Amino acid sequence: MNQPLWDDQPWPPLPRLVGTVRADVCVVGLGGSGLAALDELAALGVNAIGLDAGPVGGGAAGRNGGFVLAGLAEFFHRTVARCGRDTAAALYRLTLDEIERQAREFPGMLRRPGSLRLAADAAERDDCRAHLAALGACGFPAEPYAGPEGEGILLPTDGVMQPLRRVRALAQRLRERRVLLYEHSPVRKMVPGTVATDGGVVLCGAVLVAVDGKLEVLFPELQPRARTARLQMLGTAPAPEVHFPRPCYWRYGYEYWQQQPDGSIALGGFRDHALEEEWTRQTEPTDLIQGLLEKFLREKLGVRAPVTHRWAAAVAYTPDALPVIEQVRANVWAVGAYNGTGNVVGALSARAAARRLCGEPAPWADLVARARRGGS
Ligand SMILES: Cc1cc2nc3c(=O)[nH]c(=O)nc-3n(C[C@H](O)[C@H](O)[C@H](O)COP(=O)(O)OP(=O)(O)OC[C@H]3O[C@@H](n4cnc5c(N)ncnc54)[C@H](O)[C@@H]3O)c2cc1C
User: Fold this and answer.
1) 226 and 316 in contact (C-beta within 8 Å)?
2) Is there a contact between 21 and 200 (Cβ–Cβ < 8 Å)?
3) What CA–CA distance (Å, rounded) separates 93 from 55?
4) Mind listing the pLDDT tens digit for each residue in 229-272?
5) pLDDT over 90 at 1, yes or no
6) Staple partner for 83: which of 162, 306, 311, 371, CB 3.0–4.6 Å?
7) What is the predicted pLDDT for the residue at 158?
8) Which residue ranges have their beta carbon within 6 Å of ligand 1?
9) Can you tell me the mean pLDDT for 165-191?
């Protein structure tokens, strides 16, 4: 079984690329990031088309936990330690703006109950206090939390969504604006001005590759900086015996779960319990991680409902936990490696790359570059 809980509605397939098409920009990857890039390019009046090796949302964007969180992959106080308070705060502010944009974009799709960061032990409770203090010092909303789920921090600006539904809605909106999208068209070759698939060719001025997991397969020059890992989840039937009004993450975010409006639970985590095996480009769930998830589901969360779905997907990590946003080759841009949290950071990074490629200002990309230099 490798099907996400989210795949609950039919999706009429889009065409494969056949023959030769021309565009100013070819976007590779139709997850949340590639679609955000196409949206930005359309807003800039650029003629762009999109390609994907599989279906829209078939990668991590349609198979993730659905958390829509402010900030980077590292908690805010760690980002402050990495690049200073000004840079960290400016980055955080742009993620808050992006969450607002996503809430406006498709009303009703993003719920905003806030999120709960829960501490697994005393050391993590201390870390939560440091996290809270750093947010408070910059005036960002956050409050201490103690409730039935545990103790930690409530971040009221965060949200949660059904990720595949959102990606498909984004794609549908682009199609209504006559942006050409091709599914099941894996890119086999990229040379300046040409992107080739099995059945066709795109002649274009520039390429923007928005692939998170397996980024280093398309760009071997990004190794060993970008490294692919597998993340796994499971989903259940409606579980009326539990009540989680907010998305929760626990043990420094290793485990995360949300309860959907119909009561079903989506739970992910435990990558660090098989760290070496999970540094892989394979995307099949494994017995070991699925067993740990199920034990946690029963013993920690108290869920009795049957497990109906198990799935996995690939994402990429960087040693400094900052995303890749760069021109890798002449007129070829790469974005990805969101370190496990790409719903907000991926959209921001892809929009920034699209803007850079068009010679437009891209404050997010500037700030990420500054953070990478330590804030100077
Ligand atoms: C289990 C799991 C849980 C997660 N939970 C969260 C969460 O709760 N919140 C959060 O913010 N982030 C989460 N993430 C991370 C987040 O899902 C990703 O960072 C984000 O979705 C990446 O989106 P993307 O569009 O960049 O990449 P993807 O969605 O992976 O899309 C890339 C696309 O590129 C295509 N592609 C690859 N190679 C080629 C090629 N050669 N030719 C053409 N197309 C190609 C793929 O088919 C794919 O559709 C999670 C990830 C996983 C796996």
Assistant:
1) yes
2) yes
3) 33
4) 999 999 999 999 999 999 999 999 999 999 999 999 999 999 99
5) no
6) 371
7) 98
8) 28-34, 51-54, 58-61, 63-67, 186-187, 210-214, 218, 231, 233, 268, 313, 315, 336, 338, 340-344, 346
9) 96
Mean pLDDT of 123-127: 98
Length of the chain: 376
Q: Ligand 1 pocket test: which of 68, 318, 341 has the largest number of ligand atoms within 8 Å of its C-beta?
A: 341
Count CB-CB contacts under 10 A for residue 280.
Answer: 16
DSSP code at position 222: G
Mean pLDDT of 351-371: 98
Q: Report the Cα 109 to chain-centroid distance in Å.
A: 16
How many helices (H) and strands (E) the chain has is answered by 10, 19
Residue 192, pLDDT above cutoff 90 = no
For the chain, list the strands marked E by DSSP.
Answer: 19-28, 48-51, 67-68, 110-111, 115-118, 143-147, 150-155, 159-161, 181-182, 187-191, 194-197, 200-210, 227-236, 248-250, 255-259, 265-268, 307-317, 324-329, 332-336
Residue closest to 27 by CA, chosen among 173, 250, 195: 195
